[in-house]
Amino acid sequence: MLSGGDEDVPDGIGMARLQWTRLPTAEADGASTSAPADDELFSGAAVESLDYEVIENYAYREEQAKRSKFWVPYYIMLKWLFSLLIGVGTGLAAIFINLAVENFSGWKYAATFAIIKHSYFVGYFVYTLFNLALVFSSVYIVTNFAPAAAGSGIPEIKGYLNGVDTHGILLFRTLVGKIFGSIGSVGGGLALGKEGPLVHTGACIASLLGQVTCGCAAGVAAAFRAPVGGVLFALEEVTSWWRSHLMWRVFFTSAVVAVVVRSAMNWCNSGKCGHFGAGGFIIWDISGGQEDYSYQELLPMAIIGVIGGLLETPIESSFLAYGKQCSLSDAHTNPEKVSIGFTPGALFNQLTLYITKWRRTYLHKKGRRVKIIEACLISLLTSTISFVLPLLRKCSSCPEVEANSGIECPRPPGTDGNFVNFYCSRDKEYNDLATIFFNTQDDAIRNLFSAKTFHEYSAKSLITFLVMFYSLAVVTFGTAVPAGQFVPGIMIGSTYGRLVGMFVVKFYKKLNIEEGTYALLGAASFLGGSMRMTVSLCVIMVEITNNLKLLPLIMLVLLVSKAVGDFFNEGLYEEQARLRGIPLLDSRPKQIMRNMNAKDACKNQKVVCLPRVSRVVDIVSVLQTNKHNGFPVVDRGQNGESLVIGLILRRHNFSDFVKPASSKGKSIDDIHLTEDELGLYLDLAPFLNPSPYIVPEDMSLAKVYNLFRQLGLRHIFVVPRPSRVVGLITRKDLLLEEDSNTVTTELQSTSVRGLLNGKMLGGNAHLGRPLLDNLVIG
Prior knowledge:
alpha+beta, elongated, chloride channel, Cl_channel_pln, voltage-gated chloride channel activity
């Protein structure tokens, strides 16, 4: 800092050669200055853009210069070590969640079945009270300790990897709330799953080590025991930028998770895990089922895909109230407008949207107590439906099963499996509706997928369960508990898939057709129609069913369901992100952007600039009156004209691994300065980004969009077209060779090789000189 009143201010510390650009003079236009801010766009939610760009300022270069030649191998080994730790941590978290859910469920069902032999009402009371206690613990943790742990977390993580940080999603307390909240909500029997929260859990663990993408893949690998599917899920669904070396680390992390989970399962097979048994980690082995299929079955299979696309077709919705700023969002979002459109067959998402909007507008604004009461009432409703409905169905006689099939009818109380004896008058009877309701969702899906269990379920029971579970899933979605949509979607899809399978078996009258195969295809179709995943979902379904022969059929229903869904709108996670006010940038720009230029996106924009040498009081005033996170820094050239010398950020972080944790951090209002400190001067040159990305004002907005998204940028300067060309870079100019003997870097291009003689590329010789000594005016 410089003492106040000193007019002869030194030029400060020299930087790398800057790309100077003329700025429009705001004073000449008579316009006051304000600022370009991306964060004011997101008035619909507490979100903030992320800084993925490496800021090569003086502080960064000084740190790089201090590193030894062993830094690069050390850096690489550290990343692999972090990947290992993420895999182990995520695997252990998944083991803990599964053990807790399975044991809580086992104790609940064992106690309920034992009590209802003596008193139906006491059994109902104990069953309901058990579920209510678990759900209450979940909603209490979320509302009072970790609000960001509500929901699946996948839309927020997808937004984070797209460049948008929702405050609180990766905090340690969110991790704790996600783990224990998932145990309560899933163990309490609500119509939701733990697989989506496991993805969020993996991301939270990975964020501690700066490897969020690895955490997402690890979460899927742990949730479904599908390591390859986890890698493809991270690639297809959540990441916006992908590099080959990242692929290796993600694959390694998923493999570590698979080893940890497999070790835990082998240990639990010895009976040391309580009620944790075959129903623990998801794997629905149907390798002993249908071996082949005929062309006649392709039509009903395609129909299953159509049903999946229609039942989950999202509706047009937009809840963002963007301000009028210079942003890519302005090119395809109507500011300050909330619109809702409807598409045919979008029953699930329409109902979900109505309820969620009502919750946010009226219910959840009344405070935490209302959120807790709401979740408890839904728990009571779910417990009552799952307990009472099976009583309305008559018990059926146990079918004849093969001696070596491993199927027991009825199964012992409190254990996983088919054929539940629920309030049946005879020993060799079972209740088909209770077989679905009185199981964990993993076990219920395994029963629906099971092979060689013809006529286990009646059509009336399946329709009853489909209607009731579908309704409960709609109502439960949006409550203040951790909630995933994977398993509920599989439950719904496998139910109507089995219904179609029953029809095919009856119509074609062939012995080699399995109802469980159609249940699997129904599950794939529902997930494909809702989440619009294809490759990753296909691999996940193959891995969790252990049946590669069904791969062509799964591909068929996924393609059909995705095509039907895409005809109407975007996927479920995109719609949820929009509902939460997370402005995702799609993979491709809108068609209208091709007829717009960069200047069109900056209409009515006023830019706040900071002089290179500024008084502290002026900087504090700008930070207090603006919520922007980037400010152009300008200086005067030799002819007195205004030149931009870089971009200064509100916050600075030079860590190689950990991005700023998603927390609001320290505010400018929390910093208290004395009068003497406010009167000092600060040279911003060492801290600014000397080479921000710059585009001419007449560049196509579509090209700006691609540049912004593919590079993970937060700010782009829009300037008048440059007046002269300094040089031209081609592909061969970017091919570098490193000489291990001289430790120098050489360009392949002979046209520029001579310029490097005696110099290091990006050398530090100029860093000690004043910045303005390098000023060049064209």
